Amino acid sequence: MEFLNTFINGLSVGGVYAMIALGYTMVYGIAKMLNFAHGDIIMVGAYMIVLFLPINPIVAIIAAIVLCALLGIFIEKIAYKPLRGASPLAVLITAIGVSYLLQSLAQAIAGPTTYHPNPLEKLFPKFMGEPTYGIIKIGAFQIKLSTLITLICVALVMIGLTLFVKKTKIGRAMVAVSEDKGAAQLMGINVNNIIMITFAIGSSLAALASVLTTFESASVETTMGSLPGIKAFTAAVIGGIGSIPGAMIGGIILGLVECFAQAFPRIAPYTVAIEFSLLIIVLLVKPTGILGKKRREKV
Q1: What three-state secondary structure class fits 99?
Q2: What is the pLDDT of residue 65?
Q3: Closest residue by Cα to residue 5 from 144, 209, 207
Q4: Which tens digits make up the pLDDT trace of 140-156?
Q5: Do residues 98 and 104 touch, judged by C-beta distance below 8 A?
Q6: What is the mean pLDDT of residues 149-173?
């Protein structure tokens, strides 16, 4: 039973990493850039939860997703679009600069205070009350309400995103741009709009990940998005950067490794080292990641 609980928690944590990793992998697959400011979108979404939670938890969740999507569009327009033809190094340095800018602005506005919002307490007050406090029991098996909601949300997001990419006109345009930007432009696809939509979707997923993180009563502070962002990037690379299914697989693998490592007291302090060691092993065996493909660069 302990194994099953750890496995379920691993799927939950991995699902959150997968949602964040999808933002990295979609932007890289379409715009061919690494948006290292993506992790800080999680932090912004969490602060939106803190700001709007006193009004209504549903309003707070919607506000976090919408405002983070708009922030993603704004960042792309102001910081990345002017560098569309610049060197990868210039774009990478700009992304790091945007990351520190978001952290500094958040610290200037919110101050050093650490917040502990939990929307579940307002959404489901009966379940979150004593003595169960968010624990759902099914016979001998028990699962946290936050974990159950996370698993359901992650499954719906993965199914919805897959259908969106395969079945909608915009989704097919995203695939076309990721395959050959020049050919897609010749076919009448507005590449700039597709990249903007990609940033909006990726930022929305990061905001949803921040919502699910606050369900676990996480601390909201200016640097809270740094480590999850790096881990999600690791998951995207493990799965194959640029591959949507790869981001999902990489996130789940990383979540399972993290939870099982933490389940053993002797190796728990080395969990982060184990996770990044896994990245090194995967890249040594398959440099493109599990589902990544080698791409020939046109000269």
Answers
A1: helix
A2: 94
A3: 144
A4: 677 888 888 888 988 89
A5: no
A6: 89
Q: Are 210 and 64 in contact (CB under 8 A)?
A: yes
Which residue reads 């999902």 in tokens? 248
What's the pLDDT at 126?
67
Could you tell me how far CA 248 lies from the centroid of its own chain? 10
**175-181 — which CB contacts under 8 Å span 24+ positions?**
177/30, 178/29, 178/30, 178/242
CA atoms of 157 and 164, how far apart (whole Å): 10
Backbone dihedral angles phi then psi of residue 115, each to the nearest 5 degrees: -110, 155
Show Cβ contacts of residue 247 under 8 Å, excluding neighbours closer than 6 positions. Answer: 18, 21, 22, 24, 25, 235, 236, 239, 240
Closest to 195 measured CA to CA, from 294, 91, 105: 91
Instruction: Please give the full DSSP string across 56-94, using - where no structure is assigned.
Output: -HHHHHHHHHHHHHHHHHHHIIIIIGGGTTS-HHHHHHH
Q: Cα separation of 30 and 62, whole Å?
A: 26
Structure token digits, residue 224: 């809270």
pLDDT tens, residue by residue, 71-126: 999 999 999 888 887 888 888 899 999 999 999 999 998 888 888 888 877 777 76
Whole-angstrom Cα distance, residue 52 to residue 61? 8
N-to-C CA span, the chain: 56
The tokens 């939670």 sit on which residue? 53
Q: Return d(Cα 106, Cα 264) in angstroms, integer.
A: 36
User: Residue 299 pLDDT more than 50?
Assistant: no
